[in-house]
From TrEMBL:
Signal peptide per UniProt: 1-22
EC code: 2.7.11.1
Name of the molecule in the record: Receptor-like serine/threonine-protein kinase
UniProt record, GO biological process: recognition of pollen; response to other organism
Bilayer topology: Single-pass type I membrane protein
Domain Protein kinase: 550-827
Keywords: ATP-binding, Cell membrane, Disulfide bond, EGF-like domain, Glycoprotein, Kinase, Membrane, Nucleotide-binding, Receptor, Serine/threonine-protein kinase, Signal, Transferase, Transmembrane, Transmembrane helix
Residues annotated for ATP binding in this entry: K577
Family: Belongs to the protein kinase superfamily. Ser/Thr protein kinase family.
Intracellular or extracellular location(s): Cell membrane
Ranges of residues in domain Bulb-type lectin: 24-157
Residue ranges of the region described as Disordered: 503-524
């Protein structure tokens, strides 16, 4: 079934007689809203008024918000006030909506009885100034606004069935209030239906779609990213979903690229959670995403210890490694409820002699439900927590991007019961590595993914035999409700869409685009036979041997493109980069790209020494640099003193030269696309070398092919035009360079920017300081003794020029290098386009909120209308 073409007919509700009044607000003392009029937002996007969901019978009237104007036949209602209490109209009297002198909206029926009210309390009527008004914003949000701009109430805090851009689904700590989306009972009945979507309040880590109290679908536990962005090719929009955590609340929100206002998530009366978008061409609502997409994605569909494999064309149930169907005959008939059972019992605590149990690392998973969140555990401690507890069958660890209210950024999950509702997603944003306890032999026979074999028997037996005394020390904290935290959720679902849509796209488009891409490479090497370059091809087996099958013990890092291992190869220390399997690029293309990249040689670029290919495995071998990455030193309070100002200035200049070479001086014009502190490595003399250049080329072919693009790069370093529109150029790298320079000057990590400084992000903070003439105070306190004020000012100034919103305003790297080398004093003034505080639309607020969350994306282009 191709859901992208599906059309929603049930949304065609009937509007009431043509609206007469047209204003965007209801003020204190103004004429009440009645069924013969509507309130329309200033941009004409939404209307507030009365509607009747059925054509034949206008007896029931509801107050609602729907998309206004622009060719939508009938009404698509996104919000309903009086879902439980419809109004009636007679020939002589009608319901009305008015704003009272207590700053409340009150919906009264024809007889004057109150049907619905906003019920804002705590505002003393005598203190209400005249300017209070209920305003319908162009985002679809109805806000009761105090003249000083404070929102006293907003409809976005009280969703119906629709999740609009800028809205939040979350949890408020103080009130423990949580709002769910609630479906309509039927397409023509706005009263609350049985399907709801919202935060799992027991863990605050995941989202559920429920049918009554029964889970219907679950988005796996949050893995810590702040923003997940994807390109929805079938609607031509970028969608950004963000998890925002403040001291008061945690919530999920999203936004879309400009010009795509008619887009919404909705829980349908039939129990699907859909992303819909208005298609003006076909005058219909297109369903861009629909979940659960397959039976397999339904909650618990594959039974205990079974999982839904989404990485295949037709997702289906599979038993976890080391497990087999509990009832093979039933399983083969498609009856998965009984799930799977262990092939070999765990040695556990009772088992003596024959070897211990081990843990198998399953990557790219949606972790199962029914976990216990243990607070304050590092990965190692999390492993120990599970290893030492006889009843623990699995664990999963993630670093969270926000600390919430507790300062705990760890997410250690352990399971002791059956593993239910697991899915395999593949290597996508939002997937987890699940460590599964297996009997020793089972774990040992596993191939590549086998990671760490932990012999647990001794520890375990000791714990269990000693019993109570040691169990205190090994106490597992109670679930997060009381102890920690924070945190939701989110879009494993998105990950699935990205994945599945990527798959779909590839089938059709591969042939169309690949030849073009290939000829481009040929052009770039100017006909010279690629084979001319000496780039050793290493046998895959040799690499497996050198890293002991990619054992965790050899792993030194992990990035967007894959994992990095350190090993000895041919008597030399090397860094081995194992590319994630996202790239659908063929072996031949990969070889060509690797050879091209090997041609790039510059003292500020990491040397590529060799590569290896086998089946879908693609591996690059680089020189190993002892001081590792810049971020590990710069943001470590005990080590950052190693970087005095002269060293930092040299790093800034070195990175600039390396970038200049990539952009202009090499023959290839490479756009790095993911320049950040973690991708700048330092050699023994602390000289910078840019890593991961050319990765974009290796992955770009796939990017172009994919129907749904994933934006490559790191939020916070990404230029707005790249983040929002996927438009990237050498100027996007210049932006990242600006952010990196600010980090070097201030010693503050962009993604960990401390909100107590009262600025939403590092760039705006730096701009504010600089324009107030306090640029020198930007310098990291730990370089105070060694810094030259002029150089700090020059670097800050240059950084601000590079990080300007408008890519045309940013300088080329050649100018940057020139200015840094010569200490130019005639630089232009940065264009103050970092808007903050100005305007008051909702989207502006959303942008601001997303912006101020840690590790975030700057969504500044959204409101521009
Ligand atoms: C709308 O209806 C109200 C009462 O139902 C009436 O007082 C008012 O005049 C009507 N306005 C228009 C423009 O028809
Ligand atoms: C208004 O809120 C108060 C407490 O917040 C509650 O007791 C009352 O029932 C609410 N009234 C209406 C009409 O919802
Ligand atoms: C507010 O309205 C109520 C009823 O409409 C009225 O009794 C009261 O005097 C009003 N208060 C003020 C301060 O205007
Ligand atoms: C606006 O007024 C409200 C109500 O008097 C008050 O609670 C709030 O703090 C004010 N906000 C600002 C920004 O002045
Ligand atoms: C929702 O639950 C009801 C009753 O429990 C059941 O009849 C219905 O089939 C369920 N719907 C879905 C989509 O699961
Ligand atoms: C986490 O550990 C740190 C130090 O070990 C401690 O200060 C903090 O209170 C702990 N937090 C929680 C939530 O247990
Ligand atoms: C979590 O963060 C720590 C410290 O920053 C890092 O060493 C570790 O590799 C991270 N773990 C994962 C699973 O990302
Ligand atoms: C082992 O895990 C179970 C379930 O999580 C828990 O009830 C038990 O207290 C744990 N035992 C020890 C020794 O930590």
């Amino acid at each position: 079934m191709d859901w992208s073409l599906a059309v929603l007919l049930f949304l065609l509700l009937l509007p009431l007689p043509p609206p007469c009044a047209s204003d965007d607000r209801l003020s204190l003392g103004s004429k009440p809203l009645s069924p013969n009029s509507t309130i329309v937002s200033t941009g004409g996007g939404f209307a507030l008024g009365f509607f009747s969901p059925t054509s034949s019978n206008q007896a029931k009237l509801y107050l609602g918000i729907w998309y206004a104007g622009g060719g939508i036949p009938g009404l698509t209602v996104v919000w309903v006030a009086n879902r439980d209490t419809p109004a009636t109209a007679t020939n002589t009297a009608a319901p009305t909506l008015s704003l009272t002198n207590t700053s409340n909206l009150v919906l009264s029926d024809a007889g004057g009885a109150v049907l619905w009210t906003t019920n804002v309390t705590g505002v003393v009527s005598s203190s209400i100034p005249a300017g209070v008004a209920a305003v319908l914003l162009d985002t679809g949000n109805l806000v009761i606004r105090h003249p000083n701009g404070t929102a006293l109430w907003e409809s976005f805090d009280h969703p119906s069935d629709s999740f609009l851009p800028g809205m939040k689904i979350g949890f408020v700590y103080a009130t423990r209030a949580t709002e769910r989306l609630v479906s309509w009972a039927a397409p023509d009945d706005p009263s609350p239906g049985s399907f709801t979507y919202g935060v799992d309040t027991a863990t605050l880590l995941q989202l559920f779609l429920w049918n009554g109290t029964r889970p219907l679908m679950r988005d796996g536990p949050w893995t810590g990213y702040a923003v997940a962005g994807w390109y929805q090719a079938n609607a031509g929009v970028f969608v950004y979903q963000a998890v925002v955590s403040t001291a008061d609340e945690i919530y999920l929100t999203y936004s879309v690229s400009d010009g795509a206002s008619r887009i919404r998530f909705v829980v349908t009366p039939a129990g699907a959670y859909q992303l819909q978008s208005w298609n003006a061409g076909s005058s219909s609502w297109a369903v861009l995403g629909d979940s659960p997409a397959y039976d397999c994605n339904r909650y618990g569909h594959c039974g205990p210890y079974g999982y839904c494999d989404n990485t295949v064309a037709a997702p289906t149930c599979v038993c976890l490694d080391g497990f087999e169907p509990a009832d093979t005959a039933e399983w083969s008939r498609g009856g998965f409820e009984q799930g799977c059972r262990r092939k070999e019992a765990l040695a556990g605590c009772a088992g003596g002699g024959g070897g211990g149990d081990g843990f198998l690392a399953l990557t790219g998973m949606k972790s199962p439900d029914k976990f216990v969140h243990v607070a304050n555990r590092t990965l190692d401690e999390c492993a120990a927590e599970c290893t030492s507890n006889c009843s623990c069958v699995a664990y999963a660890y993630a670093n969270l991007s926000t600390t919430g209210t507790t300062g705990d950024m760890t997410r250690c999950l352990v399971w002791s019961g059956e593993l239910i509702d697991t899915e395999k997603l593949g290597d996508v944003v939002g997937s987890d590595t699940l460590y599964l306890r297996l009997a020793g032999t089972d774990a040992a026979v596993q191939g590549n993914v086998f990671s760490a074999m932990l012999t647990v028997c001794a520890t375990c037996r000791r714990t269990c035999v000693k019993g109570k005394s040691s169990s205190n020390a090994l106490r597992i904290a109670l679930p997060t409700v009381l102890t920690s935290t924070i945190l939701i959720i989110t879009g494993i679902l998105l990950a699935c869409w990205i994945k599945s849509k990527g798959k779909r796209g590839n089938k059709e488009d591969n042939n169309k685009i690949s030849p073009g891409a290939r000829s481009k490479s040929d052009e770039l090497v100017e006909g010279s036979a690629a084979q001319d370059v000496e780039l050793p091809f290493i046998k895959f087996e040799d690499i497996e041997a050198a890293t002991q099958n990619f054992s965790e013990a050899y792993k030194i890092g992990q990035g967007g493109f894959g994992k990095v291992y350190k090993a000895m190869l041919g008597g030399q220390e090397v860094a081995i980069k194992r590319l994630s399997k996202d790239s659908e690029q063929g072996m031949e293309e990969f070889r060509n790209e690797a050879i091209l990249i090997a041609k790039l040689q510059h003292r500020n670029l990491v040397r590529l020494l060799g590569c290896s290919v086998q089946d879908r495995e693609k591996i690059l071998i680089y020189e190993y640099l002892p001081n590792r990455s810049l971020d590990a030193i710069l943001f470590d309070n005990s080590r950052k003193v190693l970087l005095d100002w002269p060293t930092r200035f040299n790093i800034i200049k070195g990175v600039a030269r390396g970038l200049l070479y990539l952009h202009q001086d090499s023959r290839l014009t490479i756009v790095h696309r993911d320049l950040k502190a973690a991708n700048v490595l330092l050699d023994a003399e602390m000289r910078p070398k840019i890593a991961d250049f050319g990765m974009a080329r290796i992955f770009s072919d796939n990017q172009k092919n994919a129907n749904t693009q994933r934006v490559v790069g790191t939020y916070g370093y990404m230029a707005p035009e790249y983040a929002m529109e996927g438009v990237f150029s050498i100027k996007s790298d210049v932006y990242s360079f600006g952010v990196l320079t600010l980090e070097l000057v201030t010693g503050i990590r962009r993604s960990a920017f401390n909100k107590t400084k009262d600025f939403p992000n590092l760039t705006i903070y730096a701009w504010d300081m600089w324009k107030e003439g306090n640029g020198k105070d930007l310098a990291d306190p730990s370089i105070m003794d060694t810094c030259s004020v002029d150089e700090v000012l020059l670097c800050s100034h240059m950084a601000l020029l590079c990080a300007q919103e408008n890519s045309d305003d940013r300088p080329l790297m050649s100018s940057v290098v020139l200015a840094l080398e010569n200490g130019s004093t005639t630089l232009p003034t940065p264009n103050n386009s970092w808007h903050y505080g100005q305007g008051s639309s909702d989207m502006e607020q959303t942008r601001y909120r997303i912006d101020s969350s840690t590790n975030s994306l700057t969504l500044t282009n959204i409101e521009g209308r």
